[in-house]
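Our preliminary data section would be incomplete without showing what the modeling component actually yields. Below, a chain of 292 amino acids is followed by its predicted structure, encoded as tokens that our downstream tools consume directly.
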Amino acid sequence: MKNFKGTGVALVTPFDSNNQVDYAALDALLNHTQKVDYYVVLGTTAESVTLTAEEKHNIVRHIVEFNKGQKPIVVGIGGNNTAEVVRQLQTFDLKGVDAILSVVPYYNKPTQEGIYAHYAEILKHSPLPVILYNVPGRTGVNMSAKTTLRLANDFAGRAIAVKEASGNLAQAAYILRDRPSDFLVISGDDNLTLPLISMGADGVISVSANSFPAKMCAMTNNALMGEYAQAAALNLELYEATDLLFAEGNPAGVKEALAIKEIIGRNVRLPLVNISESVSEGLKEQIEKYKL
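Predicted structure:
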């Protein structure tokens, strides 16, 4: 099984001026993020809910071909229709992919028992190991530590990690304390990565790593090695810029940062729109000030 410790990048999907997937820009982004430990494709940051099934297939195949087996690849396949998620897992071309990232079902607002049953079906049918993804700010429901640990224990070797983006350090602490020894806890909040690693977490799936890969990877690696003074200094340099990435929605912010750095364009698909000039100016100041 591949190692998902360190820094994974939640890749954006570049679009051209006609709002079509820009594969040349995607190559530029992949080259820009070569310092990361693994790629996460078709997550929230990829605007995956606006992509067609054909686009999703083509993006994954393109990244697999570009990667040539160098880094582990995680693909997001999730939703709030359990049967449809299972169908996608069984029909999607996952050659060259190492794990699935699957989000807590959104909008329906299931109980903890419903969340457990949803994941149980996914874990029974997925051809690849699964990283659970708890992000209540988007889904409208929190997967409790108890439910996460129940899944980790009942599906050992299948549920291999949780991307914990609840923002609740106490909840993360209970997962870290009671998890199976081979179950990873991965930060889903860039600016909480350092405190989570200090508690025992294994890394981050990062939005910031699209735009600031060198510093984000250095911060995470220093923290994982216990070099907290160095990690803290880098974390503070990244902190305000990372806040600005999310100030008016993700991935509009990180695409703006990438456009400022002339890596890819800033185009997003509706219902997202480009960020305001004031936030863009703030990003420019932070990028220049801290050489991000």
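The longest strand covers residues 159-164. The chain has a mean pLDDT of 97. Preliminary results of this kind motivate Aim 1 of the renewal.
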